[in-house]
Amino acid sequence: MLELCDIAVTLGEFALAADLSIPPASHMAVIGASGSGKSTLLSLIGGFLAPDRGRIYWNGNDITALPPGRRPVSFLFQDQNLFPHLSVAQNVGLGLRPDLRLSSDQRARLTRALEEVGLAGMETRRPASLSGGQQSRVALARVLLRARPLLLLDEPFAALGPALKAEMLELVARIADETQATVLMVTHDPQDARSFAPQTILIDKGTAHAPTATGDLLDNPPPGLRAYLG
């Protein structure tokens, strides 16, 4: 379980507060107006931003002071963070060792991860030769290889068309179910929230609210969210 206990952070004139819990193996959307603090919330959980107040717990362990690399977290960003001079296999292998000196067991795991995301046989290709969807799959394979129990998605598929985006979200959901990972997905698209996440965290007026049923929230949005969704 992920717990954010009395969290508060101030960045200039912006402030965000959160006091909520997320059950294990959840698929959770994070929605709110532009600039409301969706990415800030993920940065707090991932360790890229320290709270001014409060504690963050994972399965009862206090992770507030842990650096990003020691947290049980993997990130997927809109910028897939692929290195253009490296092959698909090398980009994925970075999830295991930055020096890419992989053992035979690690190489076998890498091969299985590429098979899992539908990239078998593409190990030697460079990112520039891949489609947008294939690049997203490379980034997802790297996350899969890291095998962290908490996956944070900061609109990684926003640049994809509707059909391909839906396909990628289905793939993430399947992998998360197989590994029992907890997923938090920032989105501006209510349809993505409905299809992926039974529950949603609304960020509104400086507060990340406790999860609520996605359908209920989107069918009867509060005024701020209604204005944002149009």
Describe this structure in a few short sentences.
InterPro entries: AAA+_ATPase, ABC_SmlMolc_Importer, ABC_transporter-like_ATP-bd, ABC_transporter-like_CS, P-loop_NTPase. The chain has helices spanning 38-46, 88-93, 104-116, 132-146, 162-179, 190-196, 214-219, 223-229; strands at residues 2-11, 14-22, 27-32, 53-58, 61-62, 73-77, 150-154, 182-186, 199-204, 207-208, 212-213.
How is this structure best described in words?
With 230 residues, the protein is α/β, with parallel strands linked by helices. The chain has 2 domains: 153 residues, P-loop containing nucleotide triphosphate hydrolases (Rossmann fold, 3-Layer(aba) Sandwich), CATH 3.40.50.300; 65 residues. Helices cover 35% and strands 25% of the residues. The protein has 8 helices and 11 strands. Strands 1, 2, 3, 4, 5, 6, 7, 8, 9, 10 and 11 form an 11-stranded mixed β-sheet that branches. A hairpin with a 2-residue loop joins strand 1 and strand 2. Helix 3 packs across helix 4. The model has no long low-confidence stretch (mean pLDDT 92).
Mind sketching the topology for me?
Blueprint: E1 2-11, E2 14-22, E3 27-32, H1 38-46, E4 53-58, E5 61-62, E6 73-77, H2 88-93, H3 104-116, H4 132-146, E7 150-154, H5 162-179, E8 182-186, H6 190-196, E9 199-204, E10 207-208, E11 212-213, H7 214-219, H8 223-229
Parallel strand pairs: 2-10, 3-8, 3-9, 6-7, 7-8
Antiparallel strand pairs: 1-2, 1-4, 4-5, 9-10, 9-11
Keywords: ATP-binding, Cell inner membrane, Cell membrane, Membrane, Nucleotide-binding, Translocase, Transport
Organism: Paracoccus alkanivorans
InterPro entries: AAA+_ATPase, ABC_SmlMolc_Importer, ABC_transporter-like_ATP-bd, ABC_transporter-like_CS, P-loop_NTPase
